[in-house]
Amino acid sequence: MTVRVAALYRFAPLPDCADLVAPLAEFCAALGVKGTLLLAPEGINGTVAGEAGAIDALVSRLSAGWVFGDRLAGMELKLSTAAAMPFARLKVKAKREIVSFDGGVTDQSRRVGAYVAPADWNALISDPGTVVVDTRNAFEVAIGTFEGARDPATASFGDFRGFVDRELDPARDRRIAMFCTGGIRCEKASAYLLDRGFAEVHHLKGGILAYLEQVPAADSLWRGGCFVFDGRLALGHGLAEVPETARGICV
């Protein structure tokens, strides 16, 4: 049986997030869905897997009313497949942030960087005036990244703030292009840079996953595999699982 995997997020006001955990967990369990969904006052984030019909039912329920109303309409969604269930259990939790960064100090709802479509990404990062920054952690970067991207060498996303403050300068680094797995970390990171005076901040719409899904391998500037937080470990072009022997080949 082929398993459908859904990676999703949406920044939206969910002040009632604690009350939404139980009904969401019950619905997922009834469908046989496994994985992790995080709820916070700022929105939803997670990756889940199950039979195709179950994932379709969950996505439909999240997008069209139910206990969330219309607050999750337009959520960022990436669908892929796995040969076997990539998660051992289901976890639905309420947290302070849907992606841990600075405890909620940075407010991405006010402004974020300019979104760049995957089709336009190569031209942007090939421009010598663009500073390309990988916002992910060191172990993710080691598996794959874009040519010429700067590695912040972080152990956790919260460390990214220190990298920015130490290594980037708004007076020198006039144009920044950032990317992450699915786009969520760049929402916070681009807002952080804008708050610190960086004038031109761009980020890849839908993240690496959207790029690998939409850009043909022959035209790609991506090297290696894209680490994913489930049993598959890494994906490549077409969102196909990358064999272990091909991971980390960034040449």
Automatic annotation (TrEMBL):
Question: Could you state a single Gene Ontology molecular function term?
Answer: oxidoreductase activity, acting on paired donors, with incorporation or reduction of molecular oxygen
Return the SUPFAM superfamilies for the record.
Answer: Rhodanese/Cell cycle control phosphatase (SSF52821)
Please give the SMART domains that the UniProt record associates with this protein.
RHOD
User: Where is the Rhodanese domain positioned along the sequence?
Assistant: 126-220
Query: Recorded E.C. number(s)?
Result: 1.14.-.-
Give me the reactions it catalyses. Answer: uridine(34) in tRNA + AH2 + O2 = 5-hydroxyuridine(34) in tRNA + A + H2O
What domain of life is recorded for the organism? Answer: Bacteria
Q: What CDD domains does the record tag this protein with?
A: RHOD_YceA
Which GO terms are recorded in the biological process aspect for this UniProt protein?
tRNA modification
Alphabetical list of PROSITE patterns matching this protein: RHODANESE_3
| Keywords from the UniProt entry | Oxidoreductase, tRNA processing
Class in the EC hierarchy, top level: oxidoreductase
Question: What is the protein's known function?
Answer: Catalyzes oxygen-dependent 5-hydroxyuridine (ho5U) modification at position 34 in tRNAs.
Can you tell me which family this protein belongs to?
Belongs to the TrhO family.
What this protein is called in its record is tRNA uridine(34) hydroxylase
User: Corresponding gene?
Assistant: trhO
